[in-house]
Amino acid sequence: MWQWQGEKLFYDNELIGTACSNVQQDIAYRDEIKSIEDGVFQITRTLMNKEATAISLTQCQFTFTAVYQAEETIIPAVMYNGNNWGEGAEPKGYEVNGEPYRFAYHRVAIAGATYSASKEWAVALFGGHQTTAFACALQPTDEATLHHLYWPLQEGPKVYSARGMYSEEYKEKVELAPNETVVLTAYLVVTRRSDSKQPGYAKLLDIAWRLDQEQQEARNSPRVAYHQPEALWNYGVTYARESLWAEDGIFKGFSIGMIEQAGELKQRPTWKYKIGWTGQNIALGCALLYDYIRNGNQSSLEKGLLALDSWAEHARLPNGLIRCHFDYLLADHPTDIEIQDACHLGAAATHFFEAAQLVEQCKVEKPLYRQTALAICDFIVQSQAKSGQLAKAWYNDGTVADPEGTIGAALVEPLTIAYIETKEEQYLLAAKRAYDFYYNEFLLTGYTTAGALDSSCIDKEAAIPLLKAGIALYKLTNEASYLQAAETASWYLASWQWHYSTKFPTGSPLAELQYDTHGGTSVSTLHHHMDSYALDFVTEWIELSELTGNKQWAERAQAAWVNATVGISDGDLIVNNSPKRPYGSQDEGFYHTNWCFSSEKERSFSVSGWLVAWPTAFRLNVLRKNSKWDKL
């Protein structure tokens, strides 16, 4: 039974923690704490200026001190167990010279949220994002864990303002007029960890999601996609077929994307052609084949086949690997440093299996597509370690270039497809062994790593294979443990998803674009900006909702979909004084927080200007895998 005795919170007779307030003396205040459901408390603070003159709000703090040493700590999308994994220069640890890192609420996937857990209890604190802007901090000690909320908005002791870069701390100015009253809201969530099979932070994510849903319903302002599926299909196919299409020597396929060069938007001139990840050549080839099946467009069929043939005919290596960067085949790059990584290879094998099915529907014979996918899977089976571990990357001769990183799990899903295609047990056995290795590693550390290939850090992308392969293995084996694992991975992915809408400064590019953070995801602990990468698992979240009966996964899928439909150009779109953007193009990155704050050109609350291929490919993947388009 929950009970507050003054500032102390008890469960039965067990002390959970203590609430503490720190407000400047010239401002009167009143706190009210009420229970809104089991273990969830709403904290309402009323500030009052009773003076005859205006008062600057400089110090208003609420702290809940959990009376335990934390074994797990999270600031969603910002910090996981102190960010100690990886070689990046992102914030590591929770303090700088004894002073806690303070992060603006809009930097965090749940507004100003902090989470900590002992073996028995999990505690989380977050702010009501509809109130005055604020900040948060988390301070684990040997004896207790302090969760802080601060008003007004501030960041310090230094601001993480660009990749590996920091700028000076800052604090916004807020004035209370004479007799003005301000109401602030926060929520405290406490969970007994043994009460659920899911992560301790699942309750935090669930309540934050539901509170936002309730507020939206109360405002009668549902969030809807900026474009309907048919329009989105046309945008995607047109951008791929016209703006991204490239013919370069023996290569015929898709550019990685467009960027401004000398006042014009052109295809990027270097490292141009990738099989998966940011380039998504095989997925785009599949999308054009599907466009021919759906709409009879002969140009789509021709270009789809040309792209797939370029890779299958020219990029395969004798050991079964396929070269993931076609640039090595076109220019004088030193091939002794060339590596083929699990992220690209997993996408290549998966989509070549799909291409083999699509060409049958197109009445075209292309046995090489299926052979290419199986060759990748054969290499993986043969190179798998006894532990089940695969690797992050290999050299061309098949030796391991980098064994570490959860992203090795990206090869599990194509192994399950290989088993379905051939009924050969070696593929299923390898898939299960690899999944067990990477999932158990995830449970041990509490995070996933190395999915963002240009970084060495904790991220969300490497957890996507744990969701996808978990569902695939559940459907193959009917073993409930795989479905539970997929859902556990989903809660982790959800910790990177925005549970609210951020209000951007008037006149900023994101305000003009009407960008809505709700449903989007941050990239990694090293990159504090948002993208639409959740598109990659929209289909799996829809399926997970059906398999578990939890409607929130479908809601999250739809929110990710809606977020990913903003900012697609109709051919006349101009953002941040750029040239007109090509029809169907879209930014990769959205700077939702103080990002690039320290650069000469202020770019906070702006966009990346990088019209990369993968958002288009991922949207088309979702549309062709949910062909009725009724759940989007």
From TrEMBL:
InterPro entries this protein is in?
Answer: 6-hairpin_glycosidase_sf, 6hp_glycosidase-like_sf
Q: What Gene3D superfamilies does the annotation carry?
A: 1.50.10.10
SUPFAM superfamilies xrefs:
Six-hairpin glycosidases (SSF48208)
Name of the featured protein: Cellulase Ig-like domain-containing protein
Taxonomic lineage is:
Bacteria, Bacillati, Bacillota, Bacilli, Bacillales
